[in-house]
Amino acid sequence: MSETPTSAKRLIAVCGKGGTGKTASIAMMAQALAQAPSTGSLLLIDADPAMGLVSALGAQVRRTMGEVREQIIRTAKGGKGEAKTKISNMLDYMVFEALTELDRFSILAMGRTETLGCFCPVNTLLRNGIETLSENFDTILIDGEAGLEQINRQVVRRLHTLLIISDPTSRGMETAALIRKMVCDDKVIRCERLGLVFNRVRGNEDLLRDASRKLDIDLFGLIPFDENVASYDLIGKPITDLPPDSPSISTWRDIVTRRVLAPDGARQ
Ligand SMILES: Nc1ncnc2c1ncn2[C@@H]1O[C@H](COP(=O)(O)OP(=O)(O)OP(=O)(O)O)[C@@H](O)[C@H]1O
Ligand SMILES: [Mg+2]
């Protein structure tokens, strides 16, 4: 299995217990990254079949990678030898067709890519397609389902930064501990930087700092519960349009500068 995409300078993914704020974190990080010159070109991949990121951004996508994949399967079933050549020729075009370019970044939605039966060669083709695409981007953010399995299986096996998003609950931290084990002991996925972010924090900062030490995961930051996020969510406004001085965005800007974009050795 190829390890992809590796050509982008920075590949960043989030994981953690369900509902901890992974999707909101990606959207807030995207806003913070979009303002930093060293981010370069930015791609957001929504790897959650529920496509929460696409809706959190208020974006519309023409096609998902899942739909591209279905088309590949149909083409492969329809033809014999020549179908393979046809598919390779179509793939780059189809992947680019699934890409939606917005003002500050582009977005690619995976959609539903699971069907019964084994379509491994198709997945490999898709992975290659995404690799082609990622050559055009300097920074890629990946939003996934809860847990690590999907990120590992579908999109990437090697990351620059993996952010575990936890809420201030013991269950959130239990999931964080499991993910740490999967990464550090079982080496399910390779990443250069592993960080913990507590989200929707309302007090108890010292307890959370202690918890991160016990978990033995580098604490990247504490994102406050932000009324702006809650009200944007309520009225369906894109989180990427949050006022830049919102408390959550300011903290993400700090994490992005000190932990994500800073070169090795310059992190604090
Ligand atoms: N810092 C914050 N302040 C206030 N509300 C927040 C904050 N971060 C996230 N939320 C809210 O918490 C809820 C869950 O967030 P989100 O959908 O991002 O979680 P998730 O981890 O992606 O969920 P899932 O596991 O279902 O994909 C949303 O209603 C979101 O608006
Ligand atoms: Mg989500």
Instruction: Tell me the CATH superfamily.
Output: P-loop containing nucleotide triphosphate hydrolases
Number of strands: 8
The strand line-up of the biggest sheet is: 3-4-2-5-1-6-7-8
Number of helices: 10
> Separation of termini?
35 Å
Q: How much β-strand is present in the residues? A: 15-25%
CATH architecture term: 3-Layer(aba) Sandwich
Along the chain, the helix and strand elements come as EHEHHHEEHEHEHEHEHH
Query: What is the CATH class name?
Result: Alpha Beta
Brief description of this entry?
This protein has 268 residues and is α/β, with parallel strands linked by helices.
SSE map:
Elements: E1 10-15, H1 22-34, E2 42-46, H2 52-56, H3 65-78, H4 81-97, E3 99-101, E4 106-109, H5 120-134, E5 139-143, H6 149-155, E6 158-166, H7 170-185, E7 190-201, H8 205-215, E8 218-224, H9 227-235, H10 247-260
Parallel strand pairs: 1-5, 1-6, 2-4, 2-5, 6-7, 7-8
Antiparallel strand pairs: 3-4
The protein binds adenosine-5'-triphosphate and magnesium ion.
What does this structure look like?
The protein has a single domain (10-63, 100-115, 137-260), classed as Rossmann fold (3-Layer(aba) Sandwich), CATH 3.40.50.300. The protein is built from 10 helices and 8 strands. With 268 residues, it is an alpha/beta fold. The chain has helices spanning 22-34, 52-56, 65-78, 81-97, 120-134, 149-155, 170-185, 205-215, 227-235, 247-260; strands at residues 10-15, 42-46, 99-101, 106-109, 139-143, 158-166, 190-201, 218-224. Helix 4 packs across helix 5 (120-134). Strands 3-4-2-5-1-6-7-8 form an 8-stranded mixed beta sheet, with helices on both faces. Bound molecules: adenosine-5'-triphosphate (ATP) and magnesium ion. Adenosine-5'-triphosphate is lined by residues 18-24, 48, 52, 146, 199-200, 223, 225-226, 229-230, 233, 248.
